[in-house]
């Protein structure tokens, strides 16, 4: 009778190969973040140091962003090697209490949204919010990135901390757009994937005419899945992303480059990887 091998033993979550995780206490936000850092596997050309790619929503996006950035750096004419930094939240167990989903609303939104907050306080567990969940903390989250995270990265890793890109999806994409309008010199390149332009009655769209434009060249790439409009007619993801790009093109300075891709066949749940890769190609196109 053949021997039956012992039952496999669970070790824990799978880490991204070659990355390091840090607990980061933020005085600006008043909380603890998990910061994941994946240095590139390819050397930067001509002895240059790799630039930084900051990824909010690291709980769901860091592993995909790190893998794509590393793989695409190996393509002929692909983007240069980048240090990918994910910002995420500690969760209990396997995240069954949805802490990540709740807390991200604190950091990634530029203002409150009373209608949305009321909906979430009436939602079933584990998504139901209690009164401790607040929205509209994007200013403090940017302060954390600018005054705490970026100086630490510059001091702790062999990177070019002045060469900075940010990529976010959904509420993370909203934060990307809000940062471009409010503090454009924080990054050189902006990747907004399926951004939640609908938040607070299209607050971010109304801010375009009040934007604090940079004197330096900047680049924004927006992407959205073609299937998102039908997926959630109320959010109008395709219409809103298109309206934001059109409004921006009407009012932006010439030194701001704007690209928009409506990716055929993709939905809100599948757009991150194609949107991210197209964003990198838009920003780092090389012959």
UniProtKB/TrEMBL annotation:
Q: Which UniProt keywords apply?
A: Hydrolase
Q: Which Pfam families match?
A: Esterase
Please name the SUPFAM superfamilies in this protein's record. Answer: alpha/beta-Hydrolases (SSF53474)
* Signal peptide extent: none
**InterPro entries linked:** AB_hydrolase_fold (IPR029058), Esterase-like (IPR000801), Siderophore_Hydrolase_D (IPR052558)
**One GO molecular-function entry:** hydrolase activity, acting on ester bonds
The entry's family comment says: Belongs to the esterase D family.
According to UniProt, the name of this protein is: Ferri-bacillibactin esterase BesA
Source organism per UniProt: Maritalea myrionectae
